[in-house]
Design a protein that fits this description.
alpha/beta, 18 helices, two-stranded antiparallel ribbon, globular, 10% strand, 49% helix
């Protein structure tokens, strides 16, 4: 038994769901298995389950044996304190987290059709990337290119559901939700959730109130991020702490835990400290950023972001009290592209749909068409098969195709699969 295979079984629900119970006998209902995490931390995030009729939303960790929890030292890692379910092949030992709370455990070994093991290994051997990889040379690339524009809209529609849900929770406070998406876009996948929590700890009105004073705005953001400490000796850090104490007391604020932030496996330029400093600069220079996004053209928007850099202190720092070689910390073209893809485009799309203003839907699509295609592992795989994205709209479509069709084996719903499986193609 391999842990990767358990990830596969959990991700695709390839186990018997009848009468699910924890190893202590409590009934389990799975609403969502969560999102597979390929970075450091628990294996799945955003899980949604009911245990004994109580809803739990959080992280899910998977092991061969439950005792592996201790072998991997998770009991000492604060990143694992939000695990809501421990999924194991065999429960050989009760497990508690760092707070001494026993983890609910689901055992899978008696819920798996063992023939799936051979089927899975055979699939991986024959189809190391996507099921139709050996047949892609038979498809009409022009038809695929045309279909990509449609599937990109499908991805925007999918994103719009999540955005609308957040709007509903915030009584359609557009500026608040835009701020939330802007913060998340600064966080990469690794710190996306932390930036989201930071945004949720703040009201748009409070951020706007302090946006005209950069040092107060930085104090507010770093303070709410839990990053200010009495142990810092730099005058800049001390000043931020002094300002934050005043703001915190005045507005009865509560910061998020410092443990939410991840620095490991990140390039220093992507440290959350740098991204928060850049975000503060952006909000300081453009306090009405949401209105600017609605009213400005794409080039004007890009110019605004392209000119943003962290404040002077960060020229010689990546973290508080740790001096480094001098370098101006610009946002960077790749990050700007991701901000436009993950924030500007979906917000404009939903705004246009909700307000029934097609010009914003068109602007949302134009944002993606105006950006160069992304370059990542998925896109490079498609390029090897002579399927190339012309712009970010099509690279987003190819990523969505891989994750939402290929990875879920929805071949009959895919235009490529339809071409390959059609009677005409098979009879040639």
């Amino acid at each position: 038994m391999k842990e990767d295979f358990l990830h596969y079984l959990w991700k695709y629900n390839y186990f018997d769901h009848s009468d699910l119970k924890t190893t202590t006998g409590l009934p389990i209902t799975i609403q969502s298995n969560g999102v597979h995490n390929h970075d450091s931390g628990p294996d799945f995030s955003h899980g949604n389950i009911f245990i004994d009729q109580m809803q739990w939303i959080g992280q899910i960790e998977i092991h061969i044996n439950s005792s592996d929890w201790y072998k991997h030292g998770h009991q000492h890692d604060t990143n694992y304190e939000n695990v809501i379910l421990h999924v194991v092949w065999k429960d050989d030992k009760p497990v508690t987290n760092g707070k001494g709370v026993r983890l609910p455990t689901l055992e899978l070994f008696n819920r798996i059709d063992l023939q799936l093991i051979d089927k899975y290994e055979s699939l991986i051997i024959q189809n190391s990337w996507i099921a139709c990889a050996d047949n892609l040379h038979d498809i009409d690339k022009c038809k695929v290119s045309m279909w990509l524009d449609g599937i990109a809209i499908e991805k925007l529609e999918q994103k719009s559901k999540l955005l609308l849900a957040e709007l509903e929770m915030n009584t359609f406070h557009w500026k608040q939700v835009f701020m939330s998406y802007l913060f998340k876009a600064f966080g990469l996948k690794v710190n996306q959730d932390a930036f989201h929590c930071l945004a949720q700890s703040l009201s748009y009105e409070l951020v706007y109130k302090y946006s005209h004073n950069l040092i107060q705005l930085e104090a507010l953001l770093f303070g709410q991020a839990g990053m200010l400490s009495e142990k810092w000796t730099d005058s800049y850090a001390k000043r931020l702490l002094k300002e934050y104490r005043f703001i915190k007391h005045k507005h009865s604020l509560a910061s998020i835990p410092l443990s939410y932030w991840k620095f490991s496996k990140l390039r220093p330029a992507n440290f959350p400290t740098i991204r928060i400093a850049q975000l503060a600069q952006l909000l300081h220079k453009t306090p009405t950023i949401f209105s600017i996004v609605l009213d400005s053209n794409i080039q004007e928007l890009y110019t605004i972001f392209d000119e943003i850099c962290a404040s002077k202190y960060w020229n010689t720092h990546y973290r508080f009290d740790k001096e480094s070689k001098s370098k101006v910390k610009m946002i960077g073209k790749d990050r700007i592209r991701l901000i436009f893809i993950n924030c500007m485009s979906p917000v404009l799309f939903v705004y246009g749909k909700y307000r029934d203003l097609p010009q914003y839907i068109n602007k949302s699509i134009h944002v993606l068409e105006s950006l160069p295609a992304e370059s990542n592992g998925i896109i490079k795989h498609w390029q090897k098969e002579s399927i190339c994205a012309k712009n970010a709209l099509q690279s987003q479509a190819l990523i969505f195709l891989k994750k939402s069709y290929c990875d879920q084996f929805k071949c009959v719903s895919c235009q490529i699969g339809h071409q390959l499986l059609s009677p005409q193609k098979r009879n040639e």
